[in-house]
Amino acid sequence: MKAKYLFIGLALASLLCACNRDEESLFDKSAAERAQAALDNANTVLAAAENGWEMLYFANTASKGYNLIVEFDENGRVTATAKNSTTTGDKIMTDVSTWAVKLDYGPILTFDTYNNVLHAWADPRGDGDGLLGDYEFLILHADANYIKLKGKKHSAYCYLYPLEAGKSAADYYAEVEAAEKKLCSNGNIFHFSAQDKEYLLHDGNTGIFTLTNLGETSDSEEAGSYPFAIRRSGIQLCYGFLDVADTYYELDGSVMRSANSSISTAAPAAYFTEYVTLAGGAWVIDIEDISQTTLDAITAVTNALKKAYSSNKKAGVQGLRFKQAGDNIVLTFSFYGSSSKTTEMNYIYEMEKQDNNLKLTYSAPADENAQKVLAAFPTLEALLNTLDGTYAASTSDALNPTTGIRMENSAASTWFKATGKTE
Fold first, then answer.
1. Class of domain 43-167
2. pLDDT over 50 (residue 219)
3. How many CA atoms lie within 13 A of 186 on its CB side?
4. Does position 161 have pLDDT exceeding 50, yes or no?
5. CA–CA separation, 321 vs 318, rounded Å?
6. What pTM was computed for the model?
7. If you write DSSP's letter for every residue of 360-388 in order, what string do you get?
């Protein structure tokens, strides 16, 4: 028994010695020394980027992100460049001022003299609040590949990535604008997938995603708002969706991926219905580039309108687009009649998704006025019926199908191209 207790005692002593060694290793530097090391690292990393940094600046937790270019030198000078509609009037603006890293509950990056680019969001302006931005930031992480900041006053996260060599400001902003157009134009909608769950992202053209459960609309009580900025290579969030820590989604073919989640769009047929029913968008049919069957029907209706309204040189079909009106999916028929203003009439369609096909079936006029127009111009019903059918849907841009979806039936006798447009 004594031998047993002796063994236990020796084991405990060994364990305590190991713990003491770990504690000594962990706390071999004083708090002041650790703070100074963090400050020195921040100073070194900020000034070491040979070509400066791409900064994704979020003024506050409710603000869209803005793209800045910032260059720090070892003498405490910073050159900042911006181009946006909010603070520079969509012109490239550059200003030079000073920067410093100081200690205050950790290393703080401060732009300590006025800079027209960097302080534009923090100016109080006439209302005393301005754009509610920051010019002092807690440095949460800093290495040669990535810096994460947090606004000292308004708590938004900002992110810095090193810029490659040989990139002018004009080239940089042209590429950012092209990426923004590709990803967010026409009210594009995405699917966010994480932890075996899927959600809908829309309203991205505002710079702030609305996140809803799949199948719900943007006015859902469960909707959440997530500010983001566009990089040339993907999307940078201010903070992660829901409880997912990921904030940067990098383009990977037709998907944007992060460590634990991804962003993509639905297959074209599903996207066609989602865009109409969930995102409040419309599909504008290109009446100049359409199957001959439908083109002949459009021509017949135009001729009837010209005959009926001969005094109006504009008389004729102006457009066709699918949208949601109340509980119905309608084809909005736009035309010039007796007036110089466009007249619109709605005609109800049933829309059924079948795998990657979409079945469209003309049902009835949406109201009494639409019925009267149909009675006055019988050729219109033939036009409406030509769009009946089951269509295979395809797109040349899987990340933003709003740039164009082609709908074609199996016999290729009826087809049309439609471009997304927010109403």
1. mainly beta
2. yes
3. 21
4. yes
5. 10
6. 0.86
7. EEEEEESSHHHHHHHHH-THHHHHHHHT-
